[in-house]
Specification:
- Strand 10 and strand 11 form a beta hairpin.
- A six-stranded mixed beta sheet has the order 1-2-3-6-5-14. Strands 4-15-16-13-12 form a five-stranded antiparallel beta sheet.
- The protein folds into three domains: 151 residues, Sulfite Reductase Hemoprotein,Domain 2 (Sulfite Reductase Hemoprotein, domain 2); 101 residues, Sulfite Reductase Hemoprotein, domain 1, CATH 3.30.413; 93 residues, Sulfite Reductase Hemoprotein, domain 1, CATH 3.30.413.
- Helix 1 runs antiparallel to helix 2 and helix 1 packs antiparallel against helix 5.
- By secondary structure, it is of the alpha+beta class.
């Protein structure tokens, strides 16, 4: 394992990892790229305990389905990393993502895992020349696919041995047997442009942004031999005690595997209804129509030096008042990290209060400035 070298949150292109945690308002944040995104309840229990022992006890699942731990210190980061590597296997190098149910999803066109493994292995030496955010998605195109997520290179199965290859906004149809060679060629082209380069910097890249309909992982999904039940951490965050209690409940109900998933979710393999009820009682999101699935919120002033408001606490306060067809973004500042897209209603923290943006982004000019006691009535008015 490499020496722990913290990075500043302000560094362009920075991406926190176990080896290079990022400085935030509540200490160092370490992101764990767990191999295969799979955890046993015992491993989840141990990670929760280590988060409390070495950090501030807050554990997050990101929008892309990575686990991260907050509140580490310069003194605790290295012992935490050593302890984590005794619990799970950490992936390093080029980020190559596959859907969480790859190989088990009866609706997928092709199993993406062999191709993903080939790309990961072949790019080992090349990865040192690529920026930490360069990402390859290899998608079998099943029900819980990764189409909503951005990627520098996206390979999606379309049938008959063919894959759609999208790079920098441009797409071609290629043969499965050519996919590895073509992917490596594009990665070399990105690497030749320097560590700050992305696929959008390649000559001929299209300027249009990637857009795809969001796919909810919440609820029960059929697998080839059993089921997966998706639950989510509210606003992507949980304290260590709730996570440990969830793992304990899983063990009691005979669950042997969790899978990390996009949209801040955990997929419990073979979960009975009684487990879902316990997860709901612990505060986790278990229903697809839960209002919290349509709210994005960063940690705000509770853990970010740029945050002016406790964004997640505000989000929890407003969740019961959200209309079924409304999306809400509560941002601690104008950067809008939790949701860098438009929302029906956006509340932006500032030194003067809460900026209200309708059908826009956190960085847009607010239509009104609100105080804390005006938030519920303003939301009701905008929805009515």
């Amino acid at each position: 394992m490499a020496l722990i070298l913290p990075i500043a949150a302000s560094r362009r292109g920075a991406c926190p990892s176990l080896d290079a945690p990022m400085q935030t308002g509540d200490g160092l944040l370490a992101r764990l790229r767990i191999r295969g995104g799979r955890l046993t309840p015992a491993q989840l229990t141990r990670i929760a305990a280590l988060a409390a022992e070495h950090g501030n006890g807050l554990v997050e699942i990101t929008a892309r389905g990575n686990l991260q731990v907050r509140g580490l210190t310069p003194a605790s980061a290295a012992p935490f990393a050593r302890a984590i590597e005794a619990v799970v296997t950490i992936e390093r190098g080029l980020v190559v993502e596959t859907p969480p149910l790859a190989g088990d999803d009866p609706t997928e066109i092709d199993d993406p895992r062999p191709l993903a493994a080939s790309i990961r292995a072949a790019a080992t030496l090349l990865s040192a020349r690529l920026g930490p955010k360069v990402t390859v998605i290899v998608d079998g195109n099943g029900k819980l696919n990764l189409s909503p997520l951005k990627a520098d290179i996206r390979l999606a199965a379309i049938g008959s041995g063919q894959w759609a290859c999208s790079v920098g906004g441009r797409s071609d149809v290629i043969l499965r047997n050519d996919a590895l060679m073509i992917t490596l060629r594009h990665l070399r082209q990105i690497a030749d442009l320097g560590l700050a380069a992305r696929a959008t910097d390649l000559p001929g890249a299209a300027a249009k942004p990637h857009r795809a309909q969001s796919i909810s992982p919440i609820g029960t999904l059929a697998l080839r031999d059993q089921t997966a039940t998706g639950i989510a951490l509210p606003f992507g965050s949980s304290d260590h005690a709730a996570l440990a209690a969830l793992a304990e409940a899983a063990t009691r109900h005979g669950i042997t595997e969790f899978r990390l998933a996009p949209h801040h979710a955990l997929l419990a393999i073979g979960a009975p209804p009684a487990f879902v009820a316990e997860a709901a009682a612990l505060g986790f999101v278990t229903a697809p129509d839960d209002n919290r699935t349509r709210i994005s919120a960063c940690i705000g002033s509770d853990g970010c030096a740029s945050g002016h408001i406790p964004a997640r606490a505000v989000a929890a306060q407003l969740a019961p008042h959200l209309a079924p067809d409304t999306t809400l973004h509560v941002s601690g500042c104008v950067k809008g990290c939790a949701h860098p897209r438009r929302a029906d209603v956006t509340l932006v923290g500032s030194a003067d209060g809460y900026g209200l943006v309708i059908a826009g982004m956190a960085g847009d000019t607010p239509q009104a400035l609100l105080h804390a006691d005006q938030l519920e009535s303003a939301l009701a008015h905008r929805q009515g």
